[in-house]
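Work Package 4 report. The design task specified in the project plan requires that, given a folded chain encoded as structure tokens, an amino acid be chosen for each position. We show below one input record used in the internal validation round.
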């Protein structure tokens, strides 16, 4: 069997064939066998696939790690704050704490910063999207834990974070919870993405009144949180399994 020995990418890079993987299956069935083959290049530049050997699952995994290194991370111990992790998703919990936030908004001020109280939070990344929810209390959430709307500007209904010009973590930092939190809290909160009355908070006066009070040092009023109508398990299935 002779095949082209090289190809040119859209960026004009030339790739020469070095080996080939053949997949075998029963007729009208799924792939059940794979083999790897050396490729011999003739003086004329023609490529010939030579005899092969069975390929193992380990070898396939190593190949995929070489082709898509950002989707693979070394074995590691996960912190207690990690709720779920996979090749394309991550969910974690942040305890209630004080954090610095920045605003660029007519209601709260242009280029204003303050260190304020924040409720417990759950972040989820998956299917190319990024989500944030609130939780009550200090306990690590489980599948049945009720989630609440996160009372932040720049967040759509369903917890979807509007990234705008935010540089989200990639490559080796793809699964760094610190990097994702830094990207979220170090960005400017500019505008509410939910405009229905009571959609973001039950706080008297609305979302801007809440943040004015927090910027003056008030403890976060968890009674002001609005139910999202989902548990952690339900939100996880919606955002990660189904997008």
């Amino acid at each position: 069997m002779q095949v082209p020995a090289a190809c040119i990418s859209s960026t004009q890079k030339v790739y020469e064939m070095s080996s080939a993987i053949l997949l075998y299956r029963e007729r009208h069935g799924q792939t059940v066998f794979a083999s790897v083959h050396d490729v011999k290049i003739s003086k004329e530049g023609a490529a010939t696939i030579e005899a092969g050997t069975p390929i193992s699952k380990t070898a396939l995994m190593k190949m995929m790690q070489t082709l898509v290194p950002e989707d693979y991370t070394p074995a590691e111990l996960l912190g207690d704050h990690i709720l779920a992790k996979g090749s394309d998703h991550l969910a974690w919990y942040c305890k209630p704490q004080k954090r610095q936030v920045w605003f660029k908004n007519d209601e709260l001020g242009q280029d204003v910063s303050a260190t304020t109280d924040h409720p417990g939070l759950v972040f989820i990344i998956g299917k190319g999207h990024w989500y944030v929810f609130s939780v009550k209390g200090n306990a690590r959430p489980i599948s049945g834990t009720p989630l609440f709307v996160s009372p932040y500007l720049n967040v759509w209904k369903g917890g979807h974070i509007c990234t705008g010009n935010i540089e989200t973590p990639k490559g080796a930092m793809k699964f760094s919870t610190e990097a994702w939190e830094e990207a979220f809290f170090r960005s400017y909160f500019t505008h509410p993405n939910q405009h229905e009355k009571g959609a973001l908070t039950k706080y008297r006066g609305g979302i801007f009144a809440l943040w004015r009070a927090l910027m003056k040092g008030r403890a976060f009023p968890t009674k002001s949180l609005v139910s999202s109508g989902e548990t952690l398990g339900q939100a996880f299935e919606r955002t990660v399994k189904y997008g």
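The chain has four helices and 15 strands. Validation will be extended to a larger panel in the next phase.
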